[in-house]
Structure formats: structure tokens, C-alpha cells
Write a structure and sequence with these properties.
Four copies of one chain form a homotetramer.
Chain A: H1 8-23, H2 30-37, H3 41-47, H4 51-75, H5 80-97, H6 99-110, H7 116-119, H8 121-140, H9 150-171, H10 177-193
Helix pairs in contact in A: 1-2, 1-6, 2-3, 4-5, 4-6, 4-8, 5-6, 5-8, 5-10, 6-9, 8-9, 9-10
Chain A binds a DNA duplex through helix 3.
Amino acid sequence: MTSGAADKRRLILDAAVRVFARQGFHTCRVSDIADEAGVAYGLVYHYFPSKEAILDTLFLERWEVMLAAIDEAAASDLAPREQLRAIASFIVDSYRHDPDLMKVIVVEVTRAANTFGRTHLEQIMRAYESMARIVAQGQAAGVFRSEVDATFAAQAFYGLIEQVLTQWIFSEREIPAEEFEHVKAELVEMICGGLDG
Amino acid sequence: MTSGAADKRRLILDAAVRVFARQGFHTCRVSDIADEAGVAYGLVYHYFPSKEAILDTLFLERWEVMLAAIDEAAASDLAPREQLRAIASFIVDSYRHDPDLMKVIVVEVTRAANTFGRTHLEQIMRAYESMARIVAQGQAAGVFRSEVDATFAAQAFYGLIEQVLTQWIFSEREIPAEEFEHVKAELVEMICGGLDG
Amino acid sequence: MTSGAADKRRLILDAAVRVFARQGFHTCRVSDIADEAGVAYGLVYHYFPSKEAILDTLFLERWEVMLAAIDEAAASDLAPREQLRAIASFIVDSYRHDPDLMKVIVVEVTRAANTFGRTHLEQIMRAYESMARIVAQGQAAGVFRSEVDATFAAQAFYGLIEQVLTQWIFSEREIPAEEFEHVKAELVEMICGGLDG
Amino acid sequence: MTSGAADKRRLILDAAVRVFARQGFHTCRVSDIADEAGVAYGLVYHYFPSKEAILDTLFLERWEVMLAAIDEAAASDLAPREQLRAIASFIVDSYRHDPDLMKVIVVEVTRAANTFGRTHLEQIMRAYESMARIVAQGQAAGVFRSEVDATFAAQAFYGLIEQVLTQWIFSEREIPAEEFEHVKAELVEMICGGLDG
DNA sequence: CATGAATGAGACTTCATTCAT
DNA sequence: TATGAATGAAGTCTCATTCAT
């Protein structure tokens, strides 16, 4: 009953991910979501008060998992650089496992300074803060240079990751497995090692 | 013709910047632009075929200037690191001089993978390419490490800058002059020096 | 069956009275009624074929009682004026005992010339006819002037009562007991005595 | 230009009267109004912010005229009874000249205690107050009995008139000219003379 | 009897675009 | 050029009603 049965709410949420990813939040219609989910129009409004609420739910669900992953990395015994690597790895894998969902989150929420980004700013900032703490610990431990502001570095790190995701999103290609692994390394190398030779 | 007479077309473009920045492209109405410009509704359509065309014009106008600035930096005799600094400086100053315009370009075009970003992808990529060339030259000259892919580094650099702009946009505060200068340095330091101590 | 078990049908009808009175027939939802009654959504449709049918039932139930009261007054040995007083008294007491129900009947049925009023016109007219008979008897007995048309007078009388009820409904205040009694007298005095001094 | 030209706003208002009268405010669609007026759907919203606003406008326009007529009667040199007659006469003639408009005002506003009546309560009360003043003057002058409360009498008078209008509305017949005149007299006779013989 | 998920036809409102002046 | 009235296609959301359990 619990697993096999059609959980229509989940069905709608998953359909919304595909539709938002394909057409964009503003461009898609609620009926597109209902059609994609194979449910009646009205059922969408039975489970969600509005189209926005679907996006909110999607973001919140995923972001919570991500915050947990970040905090777990930060709480681990790993070296700061490895902690950053764990985070990059988690986000890249998130994209790998569900590119549509990550696309929606990045394009429609995280980078949308006008509407949803504003709404979820607090959540977003929380991620930066956790990453900034990792940097700060690295600086305190003497493995990271103290010249750079920890918060700035955290934002740079996250900005870097998002930029990579955005490139993947724009490219619309199937990313090969090696590339995922390669990029994880490159990301950390870039932020830690810098360009200077 | 150029000076005395009110250039209504310009008036409309400038008004559109403010309106797009304030309300977002999708959320604003054409009448909002006309009102902000103080011209009749219909005049907007006399000068532009559609609301989209206004945003396109805005982006293209500015992006051309930016590409020129990037190419100028790349063609200069400056050291690679200084070339990057010149670019960061130019973009930061662009934000400083007209934050609304940069907000519109970043939020509505550059980071909008579904709609306008897709349309202007080629233009956007051109900027990355120019920056990648700078990195490649630095690597050839031995001042930049060759471990990092030049294109990746260029995207990282631009991603960093956009992340900073996004923070400013989100913050909605008046950025003090020192911060602009400070960030310029921090940006280059971050991308070139990395975190490792 | 009749006493111990919860009569859900009655529960729904009583809840509908409160909901119709509070929100109006057109503005309320069937789910509001179910919620107010504390029963499942679908149960409303188990007992009633439609939202309209609930209002119909409410009206018919009450109107039957009222017609009986009017007819009883008309059949009594009382003087015509006292018969009118008995009717006014009955209606005022109806409001006193269940203002919500009377509000619903007056606002949604009796005065709703477009929808339900039309449906129940015959029932409504029956009340006027009984009252007109009282007036006619009074005229025949010489205690009422024959200048006024009996039917017209009956409508005037009922119109007067409804106007009073409407004022109470609009006022939204708790009507004190004395006012009920006072108005009963005033009503009869007005219709029988007139304004002329 | 001013008169002959199609004043679409007026066209819409007049069409709304017919549609509201025929179908009722809640039951009609905005498209019904547009169709009846022979204009495009959107034009309705060019002139009015909502369907409600159309009804508001209709009511306010007419009520203002009515208040003026009442005040004019009250300010005249006529005997109190004649003042009341002038008012009854004005309202009856209003119905005579535009029964649809009066139907809408009575059914959808004046007697609709739930929605619009509430909104316009103040305006409605103003009419009662003016009429109450007439009664009070009559009482002060000794031509009206002082036993009845002036406000109560005013409401009774207006209730009487509305009841007549409601009967006409319900009847859906073409009222003959004589009936209008006859009823004017009957109304005043009823309220002033009363039933007692 | 009882439940509440599921359905889908509408309704209102918005707004980009056109057009007559 | 300039104006703003006019158009009508869409889209969101509501909610009466049905139905499977």
C-alpha cells in the first residue's frame, strides 16, 4: 500500500521536475505538469496550493539533503581540502543522478535573484556559511591561506560549482561518467591550487 | 536630431533597465516600461517589435562593449594576471556604474539557461573563449600552471565574478567604493593564488 | 436509531445554516459545510444531491412551519389585528431563536429574485395569500379600511417584517430581548395605525 | 465626437445592467457582458478592474441620483406626506424607466446582506436617514403621530417600496402605466393611513 | 454509511500585441 | 512619431461532483 501504490503527490512532484527543466518555470503551464504526471488538472491543486508551491517544495526537499551533506562533510575528520572535495563530489553526483532536478534548483531558484532566490535566500546562505566554516577551519589549521576572506572563498567555491553545472545545463549533452570524476578533482584543484604556477 | 530632440528610443531602453531590474522580465508588463519612460504605450511597439526585443537590445549593446573590453585586455602587453585583473575590474566597474543594467544582464540573460541565455549562448561563449585564451597564454608563458584546463579556468573566473555580482544583487545594498576595489583584488587573488597556503 | 446515533444528515443541515449565514450560499464551498459539520466531504453528497438541495431543504423545512403558523393564526378566533400580531410575533421569534436560519432564508431565498426565490416562488406566495385573507376578513368585518387592496396590504406587511429582519441581519449585533418585543408591537402599530396623526 | 461616438465604457455598463438583470451577478460571466455589449472581452477590464467594480459603479451612479431626489423632496415646501409621495414616485418612476437597473440594484445590492449590501451599507443608510428626517419633521409639525419611531417608519416606508419592486421583479410582467400611478398612491396611503378603519 | 482522493469544466483576470487616429 | 483604446488568447486557480475503497 505504501510503496507500490500510486503516490500521486510524488508523481506530480517528479513530473514538475521534468517540466520545469524542459520548459522553465515561467514558461510552463500547470496543465503541462498534470499531463506529464498523467493526472487530472485539479489534482495538482489538491496537493499544492499553487505552481510556486511545487517549486518551493522541490527546492526545500533537495536543499535540506544538501545542507545535511555539507554539514556532514564539515563535521568529519577529513582534511579541509577533502571536506571541500566531499561537497563538490556530493553536488556533482546530485547532478549526475538527477540533472533535471539540479537544473531546476540552479536555474529557477538559486540564480533567480528576482523571485524564488529571494524567497529562499536564507536557506541558500546557510550553505555558504557552512562552507565558510570549513575554509575558516582550514585557515586556523594553517593549511589554507588567511589572506582570502573565508566567506568570500566559500562563495567562490560554490560559484565555481554552479558555473560548472550551468555549463552542463547549457550544453544539453549527456555528461560521461569520467567527466564527472574529472571535474570533481578540477574544481578542488582550481579553488585550492589557483592558477599561479 | 541627436541632442535636442528627446530620443524616445533611448528613454524606453533606460526605463526598461530599471523596470526589468526592479520587477524582473517575466513579471513586468510592457505598460510598466512605457509608464517608467513616460511615453505612450504604443510607442514602445513603434521602436521595438516585442518585449523580448528590448531585453535583447539591452544585452547585446552591453555585451558588445564587454567583449571589446575583454579583447582589449587580451591584446594588451600586460601580464596574464593583470589582464584578468583588467577584466574583473571592467566588469565590477560596469556594475558600479549601472547596477540595474548588470543585474538585468546577469539575472535575465547570462544565468537564464532556459530562455534568453539559450538565445545568446554564442555571445556569452565568446567571452569565455577570450578569457580562455588569456589563461592559455599564461600557461604557455609559464606563469600559470598547465594542470588546469584553460577553458575550465576561464569559466571558473567568470563564474566567480558572476557569483560576486549575484551576491551584490541579492544584498540590495549600496556597495561602498572601497568594496569594489577590494573585491577586484580578491577576485584575482582567489583565482590565481588559490586557497592553499 | 433516532436518538443515540449521530444524525449526520441533521448535522450537515445545521452546519449549512451556519456556513450559509456566515459566507453566503454562492461564496461558500461544499467543503466548508463538511468541515463545519465535522463530517467527510463525500458524506454531504451521500445525503444531498447538490449544494442547492441543501438550501432547498432548509428553506422548505422552515417555510412549512411558518405557513402552518400563519394558517393557525388565520384560523383562530383572534381579532384580525391580533392575528397579524401573532404572525409578526412568530416570525420575529423565529429570528430570535435561530437568526442564522432566518438570515439564510431571507437573504438567499426570499429576496433572491434571480435564483432560489424564483424556484420557491409558489411557496412564498402562499404566505402572502394567507395573510391577504386575514386582511380581507378584517375588511369584511369592518375593522380594516377597504381602500387598501388586501393583497397589497399583505405584501406590505410581510415587506415590513423582512425589512426589520434585514436591518437586524445587516447590523450584526446581538438583539436584546426587549427589542424583539418592542418591534413586534411597532410592526403591527405601523401597518395598522399608519403615520397620520 | 463626444456624443455620437461609441462610448464603450457606457456600452459596457448598459450591457452589464441587462446581463445582471437577466442572469444575476453571480451566475453571469464577464464574457456575457462583453458579448452583450458587442466589445472584446479584454475591453471590459480596460475600463473596470473587476466584475464587482461594474456593479459598484452601477449602484453608485444610480444611488447618487436617488439620494439627490430624496434630499430634494426633503428640502421642498411640500407637506411631509407629499414629500414621501415624491420619493415613492421617484423610485417607482426609476423602475418604470429602467426596470433592469432597479432590479439589479435591489436584488444584487440593497437586499444582498452578504456581499455588496455590506459594502454599500453606508450609502444605503444615508437614504434611510433622509427619509427619517422627513418623518421626524412631520411628527414635529404634528401631522404624523409621534408613537412610531421615525427611523423605524423610514425603514418601513423604504421596505414597502422595495417589496413592491420585488413583486414586480418576480412577476416578470410588463407593468401597465396605470399600475405605476396607482401603486404610488397606495404606497403613501398604506404607510400614512394604515389599515385601521 | 463513510472517506477523501480524483476529475475537469469553467471563471476571472492578465497582458502582449495591433490598429485606428 | 505618438497615442491609448481595442483585441483575444492564455493561464491560474476554484470547486461542484464523482468514485473507488
